[in-house]
Amino acid sequence: MLSRITSPRAQAPYLRLLARTVLKAKRPLIIGITGSVGKTTTTYTIAAVLSHPRIARLVGTVAHAKENMNDLDGLPLTILRRGWFIRGSSAARLLRLGFQLVRTGQILASRDYPDVLVLEMGTDAPGTLAKTVALARPDIGILTAVGPSHLEKLGTVDAVFREKLTVLRAVPKDGLVIVGDMPEYADRIGPNVSAPVVVAEGQGLELARNIAMIIGRRFGASEEDLRLAVEAAATPPGRLNRLKVGSLSIVDDSYNANPMSMRYGLANFAQEAEPGRRRVAILADMKELGPEEQRYHREVGAHAHQVADVVVGVGELARSYDPDHWFEDAQHCQEGIGRIIAPGDAIFLKGSNSMNLEVVVDKLREGAPPPEEMAL
């Protein structure tokens, strides 16, 4: 009986109740970010810009979701600031749950709570975001983009849009809705939301920065202060991180992937790669795409071959990229990548999080192998 009460699944509604209690008492301004691509980059960029000393004096203190804690389990942990799911023995879990209750009491009694919460709001099934906004109703709602993602449960891209729209609908009249430039959905957003709608231009990191600047202006920040804050903002690990390792130029976008984010990432890679460098795209499987997964991989592969000189596939689905080199998994790629990479290469890495491409990034960060060991 005790193990059932204290199991991780049983903890979730308990932590959500504590999180709702904290939000009701502290009433922070909530910025909710959803979309098929760019949620985490946008979350980190907004938080970094609003936390910049020149902006923070207008905004107050800012906290944001970390480590992709964007679902109904993760959001309460962000709201509770030091919450966690407790594992181990039943007695240990009960003790730690009791500690969390004490911690919540401390939060309620303290004046030290963020003025602004920047929350990433993810979903992989219909109805998830309705529960999310019931927990944390956004004052500013952001939709970065809509594309094929989590189709195994959501079914169609239009269903993805309808699910994401839930976040925007929750924004009150005196709030603000910010959306990426999505003309195909423009006529369906305005009539379905109460708050004013602002369109942010750009893709990827440019879009994240433009959204952050729109929010900064709402707080009264000057253009010069916003420029300085945006320039100082760092991207989260595995999201368009630029690395220099010896003569290699690496773009680590390995944290996650779907067809839309793959295209954005490859386009950004093509635009930024220095002339004269050989372009190598290391692309792993894209997961949760449903029955059309092979088609999506073929389409991304065709685009990758237009952008890159060498395409490396990682994973069974990655065979559909028609890669120049293929590895069964990231571990085999890590072991064999030194035979493919040449001095001066520009390298782009992206794939679903479960493909663990970070081990390949770590191998590349160790430094390029000696020239005689490299295949030109």
TrEMBL record:
The UniProt record lists the keyword Ligase: yes
Domain Mur ligase central: 33-80, 113-183
Organism placement in taxonomy: Bacteria, Pseudomonadati, Pseudomonadota, Alphaproteobacteria, Sphingomonadales
Principal EC category: ligase
EC numbers: 6.3.2.10
Source organism per UniProt: uncultured Sphingomonas sp
Keyword Amino-acid biosynthesis attributed: no
Keywords, ordered alphabetically: ATP-binding, Ligase, Nucleotide-binding
Record-annotated Mur ligase C-terminal domain positions: 238-334
Molecular function in Gene Ontology: ATP binding; UDP-N-acetylmuramoyl-tripeptide-D-alanyl-D-alanine ligase activity
InterPro entries membership: Mur-like_cat_sf, Mur_ligase_C, Mur_ligase_C_dom_sf, Mur_ligase_cen, MurCDEF_CellWall_CoF430Synth
Identification of the protein by name: UDP-N-acetylmuramoyl-tripeptide--D-alanyl-D-alani ne ligase
